[in-house]
Amino acid sequence: MSQAPPPTGPPGPVIRVLIADESERITENVMRRLGAETDIEVCAIARDGDATVQEALRTRPDVVVIDAGLPGMDGPQTTEMLTQYLPRTAVIMLSLDAENEAYRRAMLAGAREFLQKPFTGDDLVSAIRRVHAFELRKAAPPTTVEREKPPNRGTVLTVFAGKGGVGKSVIATNLAVALAREHRTVLLDCSLQFGDVAALLNLSAAHTIADLAAGDAVADSDMVQGVLDTGPGGLRVLAAPTSPELADYVTTPHLRALVEELRRTFDFVVIDTASHLSEIGLDAVEMADRVLLVTDLTVTSVKNAKLVRSVMEVLKVPEDRFLLVLNHREGSGEMERSHAEHFLGLLAAVELPYEPAVVAVSVSRGAPFVLTHPRSVAAARIDELARSVAPAAEPGAGAPPPPGPEPEPPRSRRRLGLRRR
Fold it and tell me: Is the whole-model pTM more than 0.85?
């Protein structure tokens, strides 16, 4: 691990950490690194699984950093014990193995984070703070907004996939355009590093979600409305950052505040996510009224969709929030629909056909196929999907105006700029 920098921890309650690793050298390095942080203290160490459970019951740590290869009970087995007896203690799993199966075992056991060895001290510190903040948020009493759902509160639809290239963003954009015909709808691109929504809609976004985050303006109604682009059919769009490094400006508190603001204005908030597990993506799932799990029918894609389902079960996401969307992307050699449904434990809400002449042309032109090919089978399936989610929210006061000259955005009380806080 890297050499410890000067203490940088933010003020606040101390995070108590138990370190469970057979290696004395690794334990000493971790203790030295964590000792440089003013908001973290090591309350105990353990060398095997049984000792880890005993020390955890004795000291009640906030976070346990545990090696997957502990002697006796291994890391996943020990984590299962900890999550059973100490549900408010977060677990970070360490492993030399970066394979999907190791990650899957850690998540199914109840771990909140997975770090591959060797890792940096900064990575570990960030993970400890992140999982601790997540547990605090879970334990916090509901706010008035959460207890009493206000009228006209929009429905959040999060579109998720366990693998890139399955058509997730294409489905998200076409669904949003279809909903915008009768409902006030906004499409939010939360694939922060490599978002495709603007390209799929042929938009040149003047401002993005990173501008709002950097200006601390995610809950400012005037600012939010001012940065939204108008896409096809009156759809409003908030694009992803224009460069990957700008994704760092957007945090989960930003996302939560932004989504709450959008819910007050729109009937539907459609969120496109990155094709990997991240804190932003998991928060988008947690906030969603419905989660659209997209997969094609290749073996690898269905397998990854199953891994996503397993992680969501660990995170206690209710099964009735999921809608399975099957997308045919190959002309032959795919799994049967019934086999995919059985493997995933979900019945498909909709199945999109293999129509390259429709979908590929739509993508290359940046024009949603629900508009360019409204009589195609693919468009009919998207319309079917829109009808299945639309009853979850009442339409707004009339449909959006037809496309025309974009109105001048309202004057902002502050200028947007990219700067770190």
Answer: no
**305 in Cβ contact with 292 (< 8 Å):** no
The per-residue pLDDT for range 127-149, each reduced to its tens digit, is 899 888 878 876 666 554 444 44
According to DSSP H, which parts of 140-277 are helical? Answer: 144-147, 168-180, 197-200, 209-214, 221-227, 252-265
Every domain range in the chain assigned CATH 3.40.50.2300: 15-139
DSSP 208: B
**What's the distance, CA 203 to chain centroid?**
24
Going by CATH, does the domain composed of 150-392 fall within 3.60.15.10? no
CATH architecture under which domain 15-139 falls: 3-Layer(aba) Sandwich (3.40)
Helix (H/G/I), strand (E/B), else coil: 66 = strand
In this structure, what token pair is assigned to residue 253? 């508190």
Q: Write the DSSP string, 324-359.
A: EEEE--SSSSPPPHHHHHHHHT--EEEEE---HHHH
Nearest 10 degrees: Cα torsion 163, 165, 170, 172? 10
